[in-house]
Amino acid sequence: MSPTSSSPDSNAAASAGPVTRFAPSPSGHLHVGGARTALFCWAFARGRGGKFLLRIEDTDQKRSSDAASVGFLKDLDWLGIDWNEGPEFTRPDGTIVGGGPHGPYFQSERLDIYNRYIDQLVREGKAYFAFDTPEELDAKRKAATAAKLAYRYDRAALKLSPAEVEANLKAGKPAVVRCKVPAGAITIHDLILGDATLPDGEVDDFVIRKVDGFPTYHFAVVVDDELMQVTHVLRAQEHFTNTAKHMVLQDALGFRRPTYGHLPIISNPDGSKMSKRDKDKALRAAVQAKGLTAPPTGTVAQERWTKWLGDKNVQLDFDDALRLAEALDVTLPEINVDDFKRSGYLPEVVCNFLALNGWSPGENVEKFDTAFLQQRFDLPRVQKTAAKFDRMKLLAFNCDAITGMDRERYVKLVREHGERYHPEFLQRLTADQFRMLADASHERSKTLEDLYKGNRWVVIADDKLAWEDSKNVRKAMLDGSPRGVDRLRELQPSLNAVGAWLAADIEAVVKGYADQHCEGQIGKVAQPLRVAVTGGTVSPPIFDTLAILGKASAMKRIERCLSTMA
RNA sequence: GGCCCUAUCGUCUAGCCCGGUCUAGGACACCUCCCUUUCACGGAGGUAACAGGGGUUCGAAUCCCCUUAGGGUCACCA
Asked: C-alpha distances in angstroms, A129 versus A137, A154, A169, A218, A552?
């Protein structure tokens, strides 16, 4: 029986809506580009009553091994992208997604299937064994480059007689299998890019099975898309010309052809490709700018440090990078979905913004949710050109979403964010204090991180608070006459006399003082107060700030400030 | 370098397929002013683009060609 005829119910798919798939190689983290591809695939299929499936392309043994290889599933889940079929994943709430009738969904577990089809092609003379060593191929490639010619495999192995091939195989000579590509131009049909014709000879006899027995990407992808009944392949534009290879394979195997759509790349503002190495790049730049020769204490081990600085290809692991970033006071560029989560972005905002990079619904609409995306997403409106990822606009969207949500939701989300990323911060606050802080922070927050980032004064011990030495601080405390510190000293007794330490009561006292001594200019006392209790010139409204701190703490800080600065 | 693709404000984009309604619209960023106890938020205004050159046409951001620029791809990676 030929494997082709064994392909299960391949007509059944047509009636049930489109089937799309997201097929990344294994990774612990989901890259934003991948996230957008997944989002589009998901929206396209689901919005049309179809199915979205997930498949892990782990055919490169060198690159895929460890248990965290599908760590990115949590990122997809966080974004709200679920899959009808694919690897099983247990959500935080205990429910399970994934599974399905076309598994396994890890290509490394499907070797038998690929081999059946590869054997078929070899039998039919549509593929052949090749014994060229990597060194030989490399030399030929170099020669072609030197001669300014495009390298194409020269079909050396095709000149071998069947007997020679047999002998080589028997002798255990390492062999790959190559696809024998028929002569002729190939026209790719793409719903986003339109048609493109590759001239005859452009596609050479590419490898479909590697020496280690694993199929190459090209082969596995074609077989699985057929077997998993995928109808629409939406993937990054870097795969565009690969499509020709896939078409050759589909023809050789007698498979139907899915519809293709190639999505534009998302790049950095400077046009470079967004890469996980950008974090290391930012860190290296900071190290250089500060002229550091040794790692800041408590960040990166010396040995690791030397290795990292010495080789641009070495990447710091996540925790090291994080510690170093904090020590150097640099903000790491967010690249992966979980970077954005850590930075306090909302999943619905990330989805919205990602969708806007490369697609738009028109009619000046740009704020929308995934339900809308499902309803409206279509291929003709997908942009053909690469989009530069604009973090400022993302931030603005996030700000709108946060300040626009009701208070209870904000409090819940910001607490959850803190529990995950700033437990030590939370520990230092009572429930009341946290609630007051959250109330005071909501309307000025652009991310869930802002509360934690901008209010270090809350968690610093009263006797550890240090006052910034900056122009603004000096202006508030020491300039003019009377000076800020003088006013503070004057205000101290009445503040101390406040009974119920509530924002409104404090405000009454301070306002009274300002009316009497500052011609009503409350800023004249508010700023010195702020500096005294927070160490800097930025905080939530001063009366909230004082209330959150509590009377004892606030008075202690004022006293300490006065004795230090005055 | 070969092949393929693309080209509207600084950025994301609407408009292009079905030429006139485009002295090109929106959003982010930027600038000015207002609000204001700091920082933000908010409000009002403003600067800012059809890559260049040829056609076609009464008329082109919209159609065609060339140039230029950018991107992708040329692996036993995906």
From this structure: 15, 14, 9, 17, 82
Protein-proximal positions, strand B, CB < 7 A: 1-8, 10-15, 17, 25-29, 37-42, 70-78
Distance A270 CA to B39 C1' (A): 30
Strands A259-263 and A232-236: parallel
Model pLDDT for residues A481-514, shown as the tens digit of each residue: 788 889 999 998 998 888 889 999 999 999 999 8
Residue A533 near residue A551, CB atoms below 8 Å:
no
Is the Cα torsion angle A47, A48, A51, A53 positive or negative in sign? negative
- For CA atoms A408, A411, A417, A419, the dihedral sign is negative
- The distance of Cα A115 from the centroid of its chain, to the nearest Å, equals 35
Angle between helices A523-534 and A484-496 (to 10 degrees): 80
Distance (Å, whole) CA A450 – CA A454: 6
This complex has an ipTM of 0.95
Amino acid at A3: P
What is the tens place of the pLDDT at every residue in A146-178? 888 888 999 999 999 999 999 999 999 999 999
Closest of A320, A182, A323, A348 to residue A249, by C-alpha = A182
Residues A357, A367: Cα–Cα separation, whole Å? 13
- Identify the residue whose tokens are 């490369």: A358
- The gap between A389 CA and B10 C1' (Å) is 13
Residues in A 478-517 whose C-beta is less than 7 A from nucleic strand B are: 507
A540 CB inside 7 Å of strand B: yes
- The residue with tokens 């290889």 is A69
Q: How far is CA A476 from CA A384, A472, A527, A539, in A?
A: 54, 6, 6, 14
User: Is 90 exceeded by the pLDDT of residue A275?
Assistant: no
Full DSSP string of A526-545: HHHHHHHHHSSS--S-HHHH
Q: How many CB atoms lie within 10 A of CB A201?
A: 12
Phi and psi of A388, rounded to 5°?
Answer: -90, 135
* CA gap A316, A271 in Å, rounded: 24
Nucleotide nearest A399, from its CA to each C1': B41
